[in-house]
Amino acid sequence: MPQPSFQTLTQACSAEWRAYCQHSFVQQLADGSLPKESFQHYLKQDYLFLIHFSRAWALAIYKSRSLAEMRAALDSLKTIMDVELGLHVGYCQAWGIAEDALETLPEARATTAYTRYVLDTGLRGDLLDLHVALAPCIIGYGVIAKWVEAQPGFDASSNPYASWAAMYAGEDYQKAMNAELTWLDGRLAHISDQRLAELARIFAEASRLEADFWQMGLDLAA
Ligand SMILES: Cc1ncc(CN)c(N)n1
């Protein structure tokens, strides 16, 4: 039997992974038909989401057992704080929403559910539990953005969400995603079947919460 890897997790949770990666929010993003209000609602909640995910990566630093692991988690934290949050602030400024107004937005239930699930999983589990809970986020968006850009209906010159896709398909984000894939593949290679089953449950739940996050954007849900 081949060694377990990140791909083993996506295969074990194929329904949840597909429902997340091929959600209608993503499909509408790719063909440019996503209503602007849905994207705005999503992106404002994502600003709040990223603040909590920064906390989760800070927890990964705390739970690390070596300097190499600490540096890897710090790199992911910096990708969120320096690359992703910058894109969100830029979009919101163009819509006339200042950064301090974003921080005081009320959190939608989907934002609270997902972020607190990941933080709780990391607090009660070990570093691998935490990384698996974070994987649909960091790896999923890199995969989704490449898929969006490869769609025949995607036209970067007219699609209103092209800069969103470009950031996640771009070099900095893809580098962070690949570093996470390498780390996960290395750690998953030697685990037992029982541990794999535990981690697959975490991965499935985090993927389901990602799909709920897209749905929150579509429904403009509070
Ligand atoms: C909900 C969500 N999931 C993932 C990502 C990509 N880090 C994000 N910005 N937002």
CATH T-level fold name:
Heme Oxygenase, Chain A
Termini gap: 46 Å
Mean pLDDT figure: 95
The helix content, as a percent range, equals over 70%
Largest sheet: none
Number of strands: 0
Query: Which second-level CATH architecture applies?
Result: Up-down Bundle
- Hetero groups: 5-(aminomethyl)-2-methylpyrimidin-4-amine
CATH homology-level superfamily: Heme oxygenase-like
Shape estimate:
globular
Q: Estimate the strand proportion.
A: under 5%
H-E order:
HHHHHHHHHHH
Instruction: Please work out how many helical segments DSSP would assign.
Output: 11
Q: State the name of the first-level CATH class.
A: Mainly Alpha
Low-confidence stretches: none
Topology:
Layout: H1 6-12, H2 14-21, H3 24-31, H4 36-63, H5 67-94, H6 99-103, H7 109-124, H8 127-150, H9 162-169, H10 171-188, H11 193-219
Bound molecules: 5-(aminomethyl)-2-methylpyrimidin-4-amine.
Give a written overview of the molecule.
- The chain has 222 residues and is an all-alpha fold.
- It has a single domain, classed as Up-down Bundle (Heme Oxygenase, Chain A).
- The chain is 80% helix and 0% strand.
- The protein is built from eleven helices and no strands.
- The chain has helices at 6-12, 14-21, 24-31, 36-63, 67-94, 99-103, 109-124, 127-150, 162-169, 171-188, 193-219.
- The radius of gyration is 17 Å and the shape is globular.
- It starts with 5 loop residues before the first helix and ends with a helix.
- 5-(aminomethyl)-2-methylpyrimidin-4-amine (NSP) is lined by residues 46, 49-50, 84, 137-138, 141, 210, 213.
- 5-(aminomethyl)-2-methylpyrimidin-4-amine is lined by residues 46, 49-50, 84, 137-138, 141, 210, 213.
